[in-house]
Write a structure and sequence with these properties.
The protein contains 13 helices and ten strands. The protein is of the alpha/beta class. The protein has two domains: about 200 residues, Rossmann fold, CATH 3.40.50; about 70 residues, no CATH class. The chain is globular.
């Protein structure tokens, strides 16, 4: 059962990149959402829409030329007010477990999975003593369904699915209340995708964790999510429960509907055009050039009021859930 008290609460999150010559790029604009214990929120959208930038902002891993504004509360901690020491010592790993995109690239290539798990146990827990650390590392591997017979292998000896499980095991060591999975199914075949999302869902349900999944894989989102947040050109344009989104009555926003229609097992009608470059956004709804319902009013509507809404009132009603 889901406890509706948010583990993570985000209000007005915006990220700007300062470019040479003083140019600013709005990568994320005015994002609002919560994730509760025992719940999975899937943040979906095309590549380049700002999903991974949002994740980096939550972890305090933005590059030096980025500025984050708004509020992101992890329980009683304001993530944007925390200094690097706090983030490194008490947040990353301990309160937010990260399952990174391309996990094989984030595993240390010259060390075995066992040694990396044991190092993480020592860093994130109070476990001490060789036998106790070894046992805790093996327990983390077991929770992630990583086979004990492969613990003494190096990352290059693992398949994509096993590398994913190793990364998941590392994320579970600190018993973090929030798991953040950034494109966890990239590069996996369909069977491994289903297996991966089922394992993540299992951790949400059995350990009552909150899970934020960032993905462009709508089939994976349908399989795992309780709620769905749709992102386009740096903005969350729709936030609704998964049952409504993937089944009748379906999403309301034209972009959300376009995403579903582009799936092979649906109408398979690709969205025309390409997403805008985040540095080239002008006033008006960013989706208007690709939207079949667009009118002159959509192009004129200031971006500051387009946000999570749509110019058409019958679409706007119910975009948040």
């Amino acid at each position: 059962m889901t406890d509706r008290t948010p583990v993570l609460s985000v209000r007005g999150l915006s990220v700007r990149f300062l470019m040479p010559g003083g140019r600013r790029i709005a990568a994320v604009t005015d994002a609002h959402f919560d994730v509760a214990a025992g719940e999975c929120l899937a943040l979906i959208g095309e590549s380049g829409c700002g999903k991974s930038v949002l994740a980096s902002a939550l972890l305090g891993l933005l590059p030096a030329n980025a500025q984050a504004a708004g509020e992101a509360r992890l329980g009683d901690l304001d993530l944007f007010a925390a200094d690097e020491r706090t983030l490194a010592r008490t947040v990353r790993g301990r309160r937010i477990g990260l399952i990174p995109q391309s996990p094989a690239a984030h595993l240390t290539p010259v060390r075995t999975v066992r040694s990396q798990l044991e190092e993480t146990v020592r860093a994130l827990t109070d476990t001490r003593g060789r036998a106790a650390v070894r046992s805790a590392a093996e327990a983390a591997a077991e929770r992630a369904a990583f086979p004990a017979s492969h613990l003494d292998r190096h990352p290059h000896e693992l398949s994509g699915g096993l590398a994913q499980r190793a990364a998941t095991a590392l994320a579970l060591v600190g018993d973090a209340p929030l798991l953040l999975a950034d494109e966890p199914t990239t590069g996996l075949d369909r069977d491994l995708v289903d297996h991966t999302v089922d394992e993540l869902r299992h951790h949400v349900d059995t350990a009552h964790r909150a899970l934020l999944v960032i993905t462009h894989d709508l089939a994976a989102a349908e399989r795992i999510a309780d709620r769905v947040a749709v992102m386009y050109a740096g903005r969350i344009v729709e936030l609704t429960n998964a049952q409504t989104f993937f089944g009748p009555p379906g999403p309301r926003h034209p972009y959300s509907r376009g995403l579903l229609h582009a799936l092979p097992d649906r109408a398979f009608t690709p969205i025309p055009g390409m997403p805008p470059e985040l540095g080239d956004l002008s006033d008006g709804c960013a989706f208007a050039p690709r939207c079949e319902r667009a009118t002159d009013a959509c192009a004129a509507l200031p971006a500051t009021t387009a946000g999570i809404t749509c110019h058409h009132p019958h679409v706007t009603e119910g975009l948040r859930a």
